[in-house]
Structures are given as structure tokens and as C-alpha cells.
Amino acid sequence: MQDLATPDSRCEPGCATQDAAQLNASCFCAGPSAEALAGALQNNHAGPQVYELISERCPHLFAALPVFVSPAQAARMAQLIEAVEQVVALPAYQSAVLADAPAIARHDPGARGVFYGYDFHVGEDAVGLIEINTNAGGALLNAALARAGRGCSAIGDAGDGTARAQTLEDDIVAMFRNEWRLGGRSTPLRTIVIVDDEPENQYLYPEFLLFRQLFARHDIDALIVDPSMLRWEAGSLWRGDLIVDLVYNRLTDFMLDAPEHAALRDAYLANAVVLTPHPRAHALYADKRNLALLTDDARLIELGVPDETRAILLGAIPHTQLVRASEADRLWRTRRDWFFKPVAGYGGRAAYRGDKLTKRAWEDILGGDYVAQAIMAPPARTGGSAAAPDRLKFDIRSYTYDGAVQWTAARVYQGQTTNFRTPGGGFAMVYTAQS
Fold it and tell me: In terms of domain of life, where is this protein from (predicted)?
């Protein structure tokens, strides 16, 4: 984290009168210092291990400066999230989506799924929903970032992030306890297993440690486990001598197809474990084919979506369509207008911006399951560090649970997609401009 900016200690009086675009171009007085962030990580019961891991493994995890949005942009993002939730709740939508999903997605475990992430690009007078995720990482990292924030006249009372971070952490614990109840359990939640493939080698492993420490502070034991270490036996899911009750699922094998995930899959289908997030949530929200449905007015009418809701969806989701052989010639000719994404993709993997597309990559797209989404250019933030490029891209992520927004963060980057490899980039605080 050595590349964080040392923000200008002089808060510019004019910041309070600037709009979001002006602040993103010229406000350099509200970013965290490396020292403040180190203190936030070490003093919040995390100890030196998390800070050292981040410094060594992922030094570009936190951006040098915050990002600003306008009140209108914030309102439109909230409106879009509400509209999507209304559509997903429709039985006709669920039937349409699940009909084409793997059988495991039709299993309803009762739990809602934790950490949905709605990712947006914003423009001067528009917002665009780029994708929805159902195992969005970074929430606890953003809580630490909030504690390290510093004041600026542009952000007023929002600059004191300690209370906001505490509320987020309390909401996270309450969310897992609610998942436990929705999964049909009436006893207190005592143990959570955090699951990912080779978890210690995962880029966001430091956040797994933060979760373990957060749960411990609330009398919940947490283990960080590779799923191959689980076994399905005698009607229960086991880790060693421990019966697993709730699994916080960080896997990117969204349908639990891999052989090493068989024990978890069997226990989930038998309702022997509360798994969150789960395959049904991914199918209903995160499969990118859903974006094509949500931007198809005729299909929305067929599903019984009200006029007002359709207008919100069509006005705030860039047009998306399935890549079919019958459309190949047209899509290739107009490729500069499109961003191509695998339907089950995540983290920008195997995604292609049309103007960077090669013939070989195009053949891969035609041979796979892809959608084409109309390009909406990401907004920019002027960097405030000598080590950072002058202009960095960013997107906005809203973390939600059960339709309610818990936190809004930004991801600042250079390149084709968010990457946490950009000096001066990474997770950033998001503030709503006061003017």
C-alpha cells in the first residue's frame, strides 16, 4: 500500500460548491493516507497479519482518492436496483430464467444470498448497470477504508467513516444470522465456514481473515476451508470432526460442478447446510443472459413488467443481447460498439472490448456462450499521486442484501476491466456531492 497518495492536508474551501464531475477532476484533499489505513486495519482487531498481507500481496487494493457521484446519479442507481428486484420477484421472470438454468439452480434453499453487487458506470446525465454479481468481495475492506478516511468540505459529516463502518459490520453479521433463519434454523448461529479453492492463495484472502475476526467478535467461530476438505457423510457436511452448519461461499464455480465440490453440492441439495450465496441466486441475478432479458422490452411486456419499471430498466441498463451465429456478421461489423462477456464470467475474465478484438478471440466468442453489451464508457477520476496516472477509470458497486443497499464503493483502475493492479487504484470511498 506504499503507493497511496499523501492527500493535501489543506481542504480547499471551494470543494463544497463543486459538483461531482468537478470534484472527480480536482479534489485531492479527502483521500486516506497509508498511515491511517494501516491504523484502521491494525487497530480494528485485525492485527498486523492482514496489513502485512495486503502490503506484500496486493498493494494496489485501496485507491489514493475517493470518488464522487451526483445526487441524481445516486438516486438513479437506487431506482434501478429497486426495479431489478421487482422484476426478479415476478414468478414469470423466475420461470423464464430457471427454465434455461442447470437443475441445481431450481433448488430453493430459502436463504436469499449474501453480498449481491450491482456494478455501474455513470455519466453526466445517465447511469448504466454493467453487471450484477452474487458473491461480490470487498465489503469488509471498504469498512477499513472508511475508518481511514479524512475530511473535506465536499463530504461534510460523511467524512467520519468510523460510525458508517461499524454499521456496515453490524449489518453483515445480522445478514448472516438472517440467512441462517431463512435456511430453516432456529438455534443460534455458532459456526461459519468460509469456502474457496485454495483460499490462502486467493487475492482477497486478507478479507477472509477480516471476516473470521468479525465473526469471532460476535461469538461466531469461523473456519477458512478449501471445499475439497469437506465430506458428505451420514446426512451432514463435515470438516474434520465438525458438522458444518453455514457456508459463506466465495467459489466462482457457481453451479458447484467441479468434482472437488461434490460434498458441498450434495449437502446443499439435501438442505443439510445453509449455503450463501447459492446457485439459485446466481441464476436469477448474475447470469449475464439476464441482462439481455432485462433490456428486451417485448419480453418484459410478456412477463407482466409495469410500464414505469420497464422504462427504468431500458433507460439504465446498456442494451444487451445474446451472441448467436445468425448475428455474427453484424456484431463483427459493429464490434466497436460492444463489450463481449461470457454468460457465467466474473472479474472481467475472458471479456473483450470490441475495438480490441482479434479474429482469434472472435472465434472463441462464437464457440462459447457470450453476450454483447453496448459500451458505456467508464467515468474518470484525476489521480492525486505522483505514482498514479493522470486519469483513472472507475465503476461504482452497490452491495445489497434482500434488495436494500448496504454500502456503495468504487473500483478505480486502468485497462480494460477492474484489476486491483493499478498504482493509485483499487477500492475507493464514494461520496454524494452536495451540489
Answer: Bacteria
